[in-house]
Amino acid sequence: MAKFAVILFLAEVLSKMPKKIAKLTTVFAVLVYVMPLLIIVASSNLSTAIIIFGIVVCMLFVASPKYLQFFLMAGIVAVFGSAYIIFVGYRAERFAIWLHPEKYEKGYQTLQGLYAIGSGGLFGKGLGESMQKLGFLPEAQNDMIFSIICEELGLFGAICVILLFLLLLWRFLVVANNAKDMEGALIVVGIMSHIAIQVILNIAVVTNSIPNTGVTLPFISYGGTSAAILLTEMGLALSVSRYIKLEMV
Q1: Strand, coil or helix: 183
Q2: Can you say how many angstroms the Cα of residue 138 is from the centroid of all Cα atoms in its chain?
Q3: Would you give the distance in Å from CA 24 to the centre of its chain?
Q4: CB count in 10 Å sphere of residue 127
Q5: Alpha-carbon distance 193 to 181, whole Å?
Q6: Which SS3 state, helix, strand or coil, does residue 249 take?
Q7: What is the rounded distance in angstroms from the CA atom of residue 19 to the CA atom of residue 11?
Q8: How far apart are CA 188 and CA 172, in angstroms?
Q9: Quick one: average pLDDT of 155-184?
C-alpha cells in the first residue's frame, strides 16, 4: 500500500510545481515528505524501502528538467548506504554470502536456486517437472519463482518472461508519453518504476547478481495482496490510457 500511496502522492505534488521542480531545494523538500515513511519501512523491511526510494527517484527524474542534482543524490545515498551496511552486521553478512554462498549455511537458498537455473538448460525439463520446488529450494513459490521458471522452461522460457515484462514497460512508456496531463503521466511513470525495479531486483537476486533482498516477481510470485495492489495499479494506468491521443504518422 505504501508504494501505491507514494505514487499517487508524488504525482499530485509534482504536477502542481512543474517550474519549481528544477530547483535542488524543491527536490530535497519532496524527499523530506517521504523520508518518515522510508525510515519506518526500512526499520523492518529494507528491500521495500529501496523500492519506494527508487520510485521516488524515478518520478523526480522524469519531472525535473535538470539531471546534475541526481548525481549529488546518488553520492549521498551511496555514503549513507555504505555506512548502514557496515554498522548493521547482518547486512554486511549478506554481502559475504553473496560473494561466497558455498561457505555459509545461509547461502543454501542461493545455491539451490542456481542449481535449478543450471539444470534447466536451453528448453527446460518441462512445465511442472521441476525437482527443486519439491522441498529443495526454500520459498520456491515466492522470491525464487524465476529459478523454477528457468528449470521448467529453460533459457527460452526465461527470455520469454523477460520479454513480456519489457513489452509491458514499453506500453507504460507509450501511455506516459501521450498522457493528457502531467499528473497522469507521472502516475504511469511511478507504476512503471515500481514494476521495473521489482523485476530487476528479483531476477538479479535469483541469478546471484546482487545480495539477497527478498523481493517478489510481479504477477508471478505467490501472494494475494501483492496481486491485488499490482492489478489496482494496472487499472489506474489503463484509466490514464483511455484519454491518450496517439499521433498517426
Answers
A1: helix
A2: 21
A3: 25
A4: 10
A5: 19
A6: coil
A7: 15
A8: 6
A9: 93
| Mean pLDDT of all residues in 113-139 | 87
Q: Alpha-carbon Rg of the chain, whole angstroms?
A: 20
DSSP state for residue 247 in the 8-state scheme: P
The span from the CA of 216 to the CA of 141, in Å, is: 9
What are the CA-CA distances from residue 156 to residues 138, 153, 200, 213 (Å)?
24, 7, 18, 26
**Spatial contact of 137 and 147, defined as CB atoms under 8 Å apart:** yes
Residue 107: exposure state from Cβ atoms within 10 A (0-12, 13-18, ≥19):
buried
Residue 249 identity (one-letter amino acid): V
- Exposed/middle/buried for residue 23 (C-beta within 10 Å: 0-12, 13-18, 19+): middle
- The percentage of the chain sitting over the pLDDT mark of 70, rounded to a whole number, equals 93
Q: Write down the H helix ranges in the chain.
A: 2-15, 24-44, 46-63, 68-87, 89-99, 108-120, 145-177, 182-206, 224-241
3-state secondary structure of 64: coil
pLDDT in tens, 67-104: 777 777 777 777 776 666 666 656 667 777 777 788 77
C-alpha cell at 63: 519531472
Q: Which helix (H) or strand (E) holds 155?
A: helix 145-177
